Amino acid sequence: MKIVINLKINGTDHELLVKPNETLVQALRGAQLNLTGTKQACELGDCGACTVLMNGRAVNSCLVLAAQADGAEIETVEGLAVEGQLSPIQDAFMEGGAIQCGFCSPGMMMSAKALLDETPSPTRDQIRHGIAGNLCRCTGYYKIVNAIETAAHHCSSKEGKN
Amino acid sequence: MATQATPHPYAVIGKRHIRKDVPEKATGSAKYTADIAFPDMLEGAVLCSPVAHARILNIDTSQAKQLPGVKAVITANDTGDILWGHSPARYDETTLAVNKVRHVGDQIAAVAAIDEQTAKEALELIKVDYEELPAVFDPIDALAKGAPVIHDRYPDNITIQVHNHFGDVDKAFAKAHHIRTDRFVNSKTDGAMMEPQACVAKPDLSGRLTLWTSTQVSHYVQRTLAIALKMPVDHIRVIAPNVGGGFGPKASTHPYEPITCFLAKMTRRPVRLVLDREQVFWHNRARHKYVHEMKTGVDREGYLLALDHLSVLDGGAYSSFGVITTYYNGSLLTGPYRLPNMKYDGFRVYTNKPASGSLRGHGGITNRACFEAQLDMIAQDLNMDPVELRLKNKMGSNDVTCCGYYTGNLSVGECLEAARDKSKWAEKKGKLPLGKGIGVGTGFFVSGAGACVYRSEVPHSTVMLHVADDGSQVTAYSGSNELGQGSDTVIAMIAAEVLGLTVDDIQVVSGDTGRCPVDLGAYSSRQTLMTGHATKKAAEAVRTQILEAIADLFQMPVDAFTLRDGKVLGTERNPEKLKLIRDKYRREHRAFADVPKEGPLTFQEVNRYLYNQSGQVIGKGTYSPGEIQEFKDWKGSAVGSSPAYSTQTCIAEVTVDLDTGKLTVDKVTLAHDCGFALNRTAVEGQMEGSMCHGLSETLFEQMLFDDKGHLINRTLGDYKIATALDVPELDAIIIEANEPAGPFGAKEVGEGCIIPILPAIINAINDACGAVIMDLPVTSEKILMALKAKEDAKTDRFITEIPPNALKLLDIAREISQKWEQNFKK
């Protein structure tokens, strides 16, 4: 049995056919969408690698059934850059050495986006809490926290100019 | 936390560079193995053993084969009984279980089907009849008389025993002023890299095979597949695409690699197989569980005289990387202190648990934690400052260890002093209130292994550089493996430095055995040094060809020309010849936007000229460790020989809640000697990651098994690793010096940095509250129990004792060692 769902993914409407037990991450990564930027590392919501934004909130997409997401707006790592222009979060992660193996990076950057959307000028402690659900084995988190701080400065100074 | 670089003359290296792979990784377009798909691809799944030790009486796959959508079901009947593994003398693995299973999770059968769900449903239809055998989960049971035999070839269940005796410890102990004996245990830990192992195998019409796999060692995987599949080596192409971390567990061939290949061969279709997290825990051959006993003697002033080290490693069901680990476990203690006499008796024992192998700093972690904790207690016993004791015993540059390793440049004192001063040690040590403590630890690690894993004289690295037809870029081909540590960027930086280009001008193709010359891969912290050397030589070969050709044309000496800033400096000195080349270039590129008009000839113009004369410019560079200096009393610890060694010091500051035992690591100061830092951002990244990894292993990590050999904490939620909330303030100090054996003076940073973290924390706890926890992980419970025991015993210092079984195990190991020694002396 399959179910038809509608998702708005990174600003584009998609009509998808999914199995009842298919998770959102499986649907994103599957042949219909092929959005493999979102990673799957534990399938249990332990690691945060599959973090996407669902209606603006960060969720572990391995814990959401695709059918549950029907009608939702989904943002993934592929949607961070707009018209080829990298977002301040992506720039800061790249320039600050916050990406090593890169497997946690998509989820980490989506958690960062959720944090900065809600708290544009977070403290370092708020940043650490904002990514507490995203595991990283490479970086020790230092350069990730720095990068999110840099991205926040960049966003706020840009807004200030406007 | 940006550290200052030492002044240097280089244009590219010694600075900060954005990694070459991050634009793709930041946008989600980077492909990892599980992201690879083909139109007619099948999904694979593996049936894993639910029991720890059993004879397989029968496997019935008939129902599974009939399930619609199933294309192949394979067992050992299809994959055969060929033995393979990591160390050739100890090959003990088969692709699928032959007649018996040896641990929960051992692979029995595999399925390829049209989708993942069908493949997994088919697994449930495979019927296996087991005759359960008695299982052993503790080396003490595996060594007992009449113990069940795990591998017929090893009736005593011992994978390997190593007896390395350097100098004369007995004589030295007789002269010692103070002798201590201490014991230490840890828990088996996992690699917990974020990306689970994954494979995609694709056969072609000629019978050849390509395997994309998440590996640290494309070359070794290719060779092992040739053995397992009975195919010529070069009929198999192994490609490591983007790899989501390795840390050691991906440095050996993994059973799922040949399994995927067999499924692809049988179905003649591409097959993808991705491990779930539970399978990752079963098959990550990560940190061994160790027992250590160390007897150490010093003279009146605290100079080390001798170490007698007895150790047993719980190996699990297969040897994997463990033979090498067992050697390292002895030899890595021969530095960075002057230790004139050392005796090491090490045993690796098979048990019915998932195998252990290599994990970051393997063979140099728990032994170091035990030894450094003991050094602190010796300092306390002698009423000496622990940093002072270490400085007193430090090795210098151009030193030789008691087993004959030549240290090259080794900045032990510089690391100790930098960490001491930066952490304000003198203001804190012995002056902090009860419950607050500061502790030090030092480490020592190889910068590449001196020998290839299989017996061969193969150069450890060959790099080929290829200048594009139009000279606009250079491509480096290297079989080395990028797994997140930044090796591709280092290759590009070295080539750019030699050729006077930018990092953007260099493309890197790595980890692909079909397109790249051989490199042994990412293990034992070897690529910066070895691949770096080969890259440098390849770039120098390109440079020489360019300069010689230009010198010949210009009728000037070679040294009149320099490659810099994308130009061939010196060409402006002969305008006539310059014009000859430039005019030709202009005629060829009339409508192009970037045709140079003035100044010296560009790299591009010169290479286009050379291309038109005699085809592309190609350079090759090769590196072999060469003769490792041997000491005349060298008694055979080849594992541990290396072209260069790193050293590092960690100082940790902690708070212990005396009522609950809760431990907080407040601050860490880490100094690491990496020779010359090629990419400073990457060096810091490795230091920071190592700190977090070491902290995580010290405080949280342990694989827990029930009495049937099932892993209890088999999710990342239950097996806890450090999060962003757990890491303390960190001061990372890069200690730079010129390492004569390294390219541009560089050596390793990827593994050594984790080593001193564990003992620094243990020693800080001792300083804070007098509890010496010789048992990893250091949980609040262990601290609290130790504090209670200390109170009951009314002592200033309480040292935890290892469990009774571990004590008995040491007795057995001692007995076997004594027998070995008697036989040896005969």
Please outline the helices and strands.
The complex is a heterodimer of chains A (162) and B (826).
Chain A: E1 3-9, E2 12-18, H1 24-29, E3 51-54, E4 57-60, E5 73-75, H2 88-95, H3 105-118, H4 124-130, H5 142-161
Parallel strand pairs in A: 1-5
Antiparallel strand pairs in A: 1-2, 3-4, 3-5
Helix pairs in contact in A: 2-5
Chain B: H1 22-27, E1 42-48, E2 54-60, H2 62-66, E3 70-74, H3 76-79, E4 100-101, E5 107-113, H4 116-124, E6 127-132, H5 139-142, E7 158-166, H6 169-175, E8 178-185, E9 198-203, E10 209-213, H7 218-229, E11 236-239, H8 256-267, E12 271-274, H9 277-283, E13 289-298, E14 304-316, H10 322-331, E15 341-350, H11 366-381, H12 386-393, H13 412-422, H14 425-428, E16 436-446, E17 461-467, E18 474-478, H15 487-499, E19 506-510, H16 527-554, E20 562-564, E21 567-569, H17 575-588, H18 603-614, E22 618-623, E23 645-656, E24 663-673, H19 680-699, E25 729-735, H20 757-769, E26 771-772, H21 780-793, E27 798-799, H22 804-825
Parallel strand pairs in B: 1-12, 10-11, 14-15, 18-19, 24-25, 26-27
Antiparallel strand pairs in B: 1-5, 2-4, 2-6, 3-5, 7-15, 8-13, 9-10, 9-12, 13-14, 16-23, 17-18, 17-22, 20-21, 23-24
What does this structure look like?
In chain A, a hairpin with a 2-residue loop joins strand 3 and strand 4. Chain A has 162 residues and is of the alpha+beta class. Chain A has helices at residues 24-29, 88-95, 105-118, 124-130, 142-161, and strands spanning 3-9, 12-18, 51-54, 57-60, 73-75. In chain A, helix 2 crosses helix 5. Chain A is globular. A 5-stranded mixed sheet of chain A has the order 2-1-5-3-4, covered by helices on one side. Chain B folds into 3 domains: 33-133 and 193-283, Aldehyde oxidase/xanthine dehydrogenase, a/b hammerhead (Aldehyde Oxidoreductase, domain 3); 158-189 and 285-451 and 630-814, Aldehyde Oxidoreductase, domain 4, CATH 3.30.365; 461-623, Aldehyde Oxidoreductase, domain 4 (2-Layer Sandwich). Chain B starts with 21 loop residues before the first helix and ends with a helix. The interface between A and B is large, with 56 and 55 residues.
